[in-house]
């Protein structure tokens, strides 16, 4: 069977399982739980179709596997796989929607749309499979940049983890944490550096396809849709954060939303 068709069957099966589990458990973060796993499977299918003998596909698989291992570890230590480990944003949305509206949202957006993105972001591996060519200098450049983005996301997630551990200790001791949200380290230059590095890694996966085909292909759709998903998620997340912490508005004013950049001087001096 064609490798792409195999991926379509995996996609259909994962969608069915995620939707069924969400209906049975009334928890709606099953896509989050497989987010770091399924893309690794898709890329493995494409690399396996070449007998794991194509250097470009093998490097893509290794990079995506490293991405998946890091994300799985970070998600697990935050309790994402534990019972009740649902994304807090879904509870906010449920409170604003009628039950039938949320169930439609669950089926078409949470389950199907997000799983479609997980498939689309891996399709540059299909491009590489269909356009097998010698592994060259540009492949090395893309791989090195991809590794740098992986390190960046690892650092950002660790800084966020350390901050929340400190915050929990302060609250347990009866003290009010100050500051109440992370503003140091990489978070001084971006309000969401982990989001930036996450998206950037998948743009590098896309560029492997560009190198293979020597052209920009339609598989850019995956990286674009992932970026748009993060933009919408960021706006929604920040609206919740700002409602909890009024001082977040000043942080928004002085700090770049996604792409790391120097804080605005005027705000810092003020």
- The succession of helices and strands, N to C, reads HHHHHHHHHHHH
Mean pLDDT over all positions: 94
Q: Uncertain segments of ≥5 residues (pLDDT<50)?
A: none
User: How many strand units?
Assistant: 0
* Shape estimate: globular
Q: Which structural class best describes the helix and strand composition?
A: mainly alpha
Largest sheet: none
Note the total helix count: 12
> Which range does the strand content fall in?
under 5%
Radius of gyration: 20 Å
Distance between the termini: 63 Å
The proportion of residues forming helix, as a percent range, comes to over 70%
Describe this structure in words.
The model has no long low-confidence stretch (mean pLDDT 94). The chain starts with a helix and ends with a helix. The chain has 12 helices and no strands. The chain has helices spanning 3-25, 30-34, 38-49, 55-77, 88-96, 99-120, 124-130, 137-172, 193-213, 220-244, 248-254, 265-269. The radius of gyration is 20 Å and the shape is globular. The longest helix is centred in the middle third of the chain and has 36 residues, at 137-172. Helix 1 packs antiparallel against helix 3 and helix 6 crosses helix 10. It has 270 residues and is an all-alpha fold.
